[in-house]
Every structure is written in C-alpha cells, then in structure tokens.
Amino acid sequence: MTQHHQPRFITFEGIDGAGKSTHIGFVADYLQQRGVSLVSSREPGGTSLGEKLRELLLHEKMHLETEALLMFASRREHIAQVIAPALARGEWVISDRFTDASFAYQGGGRGMDLRKMEALEAWVHPHLQPDLTFLFDVPLAVARARLDATRELDKFEQERSDFFAATRNEYLRRAAQFPERFRIIDATQSIADIQVQLAQLLDVLLEQSVATV
C-alpha cells in the first residue's frame, strides 16, 4: 500500500496591506517539499480572460454590481479552467483570494446587498468551497502604512479608511460564520512567527489529507 495526499483547496484573504502575498510562496514551497503537487493562482485573474478582467477591475471605475458580476465572471472561468481541473487531477490548489474577497470588498466595502452576493456564490460554485482559508488580519493603520511604502496603488488600495474598515469587518463576519475553514492570522507578527504558525496549520491539513491506496 502507498500513501498520497487527497486534493485540497487553500485560499489567502485579507485587506490590502495585510501581507498575505508575502506568505503564498512559503506555503507553496512548504507543501511541495512534502510531496504535494499543486497549482498556485490568483483572483481576479488566473486565466487569460481573468487577467484581462483583472486589469479592468483594478483600474476602471464602474457600478458596484458590474464590479461584482465581473469578479464572479472571472471566478467562473478560474474554476472551470484552473481550480476544478487541478483538483480532479489530484493536485492541491492555492489561490490568492476567492469568494470571501467578493463578500468583503463588494459586499462590505462597497455595500452591495449580501443576499445578491450569496445568490452569485450559489450560482457560480454551489458545491465548491476552500478546505482552508488563511485570513491575514491587521489594524487599518498598519495596512495603510504598508501600502504607502510599497508601490503605485490600484483603485481598491486607494480607498478611504472607512472602506477598509467595512471590508475588514465583513472578512471577520465570514470567519465567524465559517469557523471550520477559516484560520485568522495576526499579520502584525514577524514573518518568521507567521510562517511557524502557517506550517503548524498546514501539517494538520496534510495529516488529514493522507489516503492509503
């Protein structure tokens, strides 16, 4: 008999400036060193069409419902072209953002009716949810300071503090609603301390995913 890891879907969430992107490469390397075959992707984006939609979504002003619909259109393509095929092949998928981001940004930040968000979620991926979601959480002042020190900002990153407060609150509401898959990471810690925590959580998921054939 041989052992292998059943496919898992991991997502990374947090307001802009929370630092989640710093740790995606670490997670990919950690899993691959333990024999996991994986695909790393992002939203919006992840496909040729998705990357074109990403440019529009990050830089063009539009009605909030148009924004939400385009996010889910990009997501549907992402699922069809990347996520579902990889999981079907037995690979793991790690994604920089997924539907929790739409609830947080379009629902929380923009104020779109959450019932509409739920309807889109049920339509676009009724049976697919992440197995594990890392929510990188920081105070708004810390996130803003990090953004101001980095690069040219997209339209979301340029939003005011009340937008990010509402976005963060919706993230935390989602985490409370789905505690079985969310793990909140205090992203004010050092990179080394965060990665120790991530490794411990990944070890649990790896152990749970082992199958014998």
Automatic annotation (TrEMBL):
Catalytic activity: dTMP + ATP = dTDP + ADP
GO biological process: dTDP biosynthetic process; dTTP biosynthetic process; dUDP biosynthetic process
Keywords, comma-separated and alphabetical: ATP-binding, Kinase, Nucleotide biosynthesis, Nucleotide-binding, Transferase
Full protein name: Thymidylate kinase
Domain Thymidylate kinase-like, residue spans: 12-195
Record flagged with keyword Flavoprotein: no
Protein task: Phosphorylation of dTMP to form dTDP in both de novo and salvage pathways of dTTP synthesis.
Enzyme class: transferase
Domain of life: Bacteria
CDD domains named in the record: TMPK (cd01672)
Family: Belongs to the thymidylate kinase family.
Organism, scientific name: Janthinobacterium tructae
GO molecular function, one term: ATP binding
The enzyme's E.C. designation: 2.7.4.9
Pfam families attached to this UniProt entry: Thymidylate_kin
GO CC list: cytosol
Protein residues bound to ATP: 14-21
